[in-house]
Give the backbone structure.
Amino acid sequence: MALFDFFLLEAIINGILFGGVLALLALGLNLVFGVVDVIWIAYAELVMSGMYIIYTLHITWGWPLLLAAPMAIVGVGLMGLVVHRLIIAPILDTPPINQLLATGGLLFFLQNFATLIFGADFRNIGLSLPILQIFELYISFSRLLSFGAAVLGMIGLYLFLSRTYIGTAIRAVAQDREIMSLMGVNTKKVYLITSALAGAMAGLAAILLVLQQDVHPFIGFSFGPITFMICVMGGLGNLIGGFFAAFIISQIISIGSFYGSTELSYVIAFVLFIIVMFIRPQGIFKRNT
Amino acid sequence: MLKLTDISAGYGAFQALWGINLEVKTGEAVAVVGPNGAGKTTLLRVISGQIAPISGQIIFEERNLKDLAPHQFVEEGIAHCPENRRLFPKLTVEENLKMGAFIPSARNDYANRLIWVYQLFPQMLERRHQLAGTLSGGEQQMVAIGRALMSKPKLLLLDEPSAGLAPVIVMHVFDLVRRIREEGFTVLIVEQNIQQVLELVDRAYLLEVGTVKLDGTAEELKNNEFLRQAYMGL
């Protein structure tokens, strides 16, 4: 077999591994939209905050990484709770544009706050995981680990949503929020739990990204827009649609980068997105929570 | 059990109820009948706490429910089976019933209550893993009533259980309500199907443009000349 094919295969595998993390990000954003009916513009910046939490605990304070990493889940989960309680809840019943502006404001706040504390430098946790070699294939172990953890996180969320009372209530709210009080369910509490959950997923994504990338205050721009694109393409609020859209987009980027350049692949992905929006503005997959 | 005194309520600037007095005693079945837009649904929404009255008092089991949040009414023992059934279409039948048993007291007894509701409506057992949105109208009504029963309410509010159903199914649904009565539940039912519902209840109120026009026992109303002429075409 020609060497060329191995490189393509490698690109496809990397696309799948990258897709896992994107799917996790899309899932958290979709969850909040489907249940609370709010778009967290600053979602990627919550992930960035999680990366800095790990960096601070591990590098500055010297905690072992295995202890610092889970703190990102706890910390960003709490941030999700605070974002809902302080920013979203007071304006939940006002026009959606207010919520967009408010979470947009949060985006700039977090970016500048991070710049203030950490500066604009690229920082990393100084961990280098081995590269695995299978025949002629080179796969980064950190990407494999990230993919595995993302899949585990998504399975965990699936089990939570399908097996528990509160998880079922979260899905029910997405279908008919008005009658939840007839079930004796306090919707405000469901919103808080959902926001914490989405925050925790951003925290998990932070762990996975900090293993592969340097963190800087504007890192959110490198995966934030693409996460939104995936959510819209899969049908906003549609958890399963977002999951599949993540893998479609990651393949386009990965294979596009292989044949052309990374920049070109992003252009292709966004052009495809615009075309999809013209043909199916409701997303590729019909909304289904 | 339930006593409404001089209840007025509405939505924003629009007032739907004007000084309603209504009473339901333990073990009774009471109907609220009347034309479209009379305020029947609004009345049930006030009783289950979905909208706060502008004025007047709701006393339930000797307690004033004024300061409770909407979701706390279920725990007080009031279950509301809403207009158009409002099942969660993408949850299974059993998940819908599970949502009906969300309050702690029902949750702790969930397994028993599930068996009890399936005994009451055996058809639901066959459909338990089916998505509620794929059921027929009659089946959906059954699930909606079953969901309300999961909290074992002291008072069951039914909003137009016969709406949008074929006549044969309507009879079936009324049979279900009769069985629920026999189980000892207190029922307040809103209906447009006046003749049929009067066969089912002890007493009834006729609502017209937000006020109680008539009230009395089912026998009295069946023989009321005004009601017969205006609403039953007799």
Notes: Residues 3-36 of chain A form the longest helix (34 residues). Residues 3-120+129-279 of chain A form a domain with the ABC transporter involved in vitamin B12 uptake, BtuC fold (CATH 1.10.3470).
